[in-house]
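Recap for those who missed Tuesday's class. We walked through two folding examples back to back. For each one, the amino acid string is listed first and its predicted structure tokens come directly after. Nothing is annotated here on purpose, so try labeling regions yourself before you check the end of the notes.
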Amino acid sequence: TYDPSVKWTDVMYQPLLPMGSGDLLTCRVLIEGNRFERNLLALLPRLPGRRQGEEQLKRSREEVMIDELTAVAARVGLHVRPRVKIYKAGRVLTDVDMIVWDAAGAQCLAVSLKWFYGPDSMQEVRNHDERYHEAVNLAVEAAEILGAAAGEYSARYQLVPALRGDTTVHPVLVSRTDLPSGRVDTSRCPVVTQSYFSRAMSESSGHLEELVTRFPERIPPPETASDIERTTVDVQFGHYRFGLPAVEVTWDESNW
């Protein structure tokens, strides 16, 4: 039931309403969006002593994706190196989960893998978008660093065939299940599902330049809001009147 002390409540957390004859009214999403995997993954980081288990689970899921995508790449003659550490100012910035490059060493993908549990409420859509926003920015920076020193990284990881000094590195974020909303800027890094990426890679016949052109149209930076005001909208349902949460947005037209 509804607890006003809990932050970020929305419609799917509202109370059960008695409708008579033993019937209760609730939001359909409460049932359809209730998945065991999602609940487990959402709870793990909040449980004492489970942080290490969460990290191990995250890494093992990425390994599953790496194994599956490596098999697809091998079938079309592409080369793969997982877990490439990217350095900035002498320190590790991040791991590129896998790089994929062609036989000529001319084209390379810096692939970031994500396996989010998927949002099942309005607040979690926002939370997921924030994670995607951070992941996209990091993927772009990592690809830029790798592209600027492709020969050096190639020698460090003994890549065969070797990357070249003029190798073009493309960032791409591959998601196991879901995608961000249209509020995430993907203009510099496409975000695709694993199933789409696998199919496109298979049909590219090992030509990464062709593969990159098959990514969905990149979404430009979203418009910014100059003001957001919280309000409510009254809705009548049977004998009940609901005050549903809503927002009134004033857009910053200077960016249009």
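Example two. Treat it independently of the first, because the proteins are unrelated.
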Amino acid sequence: ISDDEGLLPPFIISNFTEGLDTDNSTNLILASPNLYNTVLDETSALTMRTGTELAYTLPVSSTVPLLNSFIAVYDDGSSEFIVHAGSGIYVTGGNDVWTCIKNGVSSKYMMQFVMVNGEVWITNGVDSLGIWNKQTFTQYSFIPKGRFITTDKEQVLIAGMFADPSVVRVSSLFTTQGLYSSGKNIYDWYDYNQLPCGLGDGQIITGLFTQDNKVYVTKNKSIYGLLTTANYADPNTTQVYLYTTQYGSVSQRSIAN
């Protein structure tokens, strides 16, 4: 922010290791006394949010933390709103009618979501990965437990495993019969289908995302790109490219497409 518009003097925020304080008002982000947020859009216009409107009320106590949410859009055009709140995963198709599709999950590690072949894959690195198909929630113990998940070229990529903090695991592209893999078979997840990103550099993977048809991996102080012409599980067609060792990401939630 510059002083060209008579605002605050120029300043630099250089350390987000503890995250942003959203509980207390601060003039650094031009917050109103009511803590309404501001948005800097593509045209560099600074817009103040005027308020919020209640959309849904979850069937949980007001003290239960809302950890993450996802809008699932299915092949038939229908959609659902999925929320990880406390130790439960809840879903609604509208009209504020909620169903708990899974209880007893970690309330510390938030779920991440991705659409794969018309189904919602849900993972947090602690609980077994689960798949929701609008009717049933099924967990798969043989799929890697990762905190981050994305898809590209008909393959599922998972990272943030506590046992392998610098590795991206990749599902097989094809089955042994030559058909596209669903990712839900034990043979879709061979141990050797993995992409190391800076092994031994003292950092852990902090984010995994797809943007402009490219897959990026962030660590504390580095950013990698996963490049392939055909199959991420084929070392002859895949490259792990180090973009920078000067910048990184502290959290998946600090990344926005």
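Answers for example two:
Residues 25 and 35 are 6 Å apart (CA to CA).
The chain has a mean pLDDT of 86.
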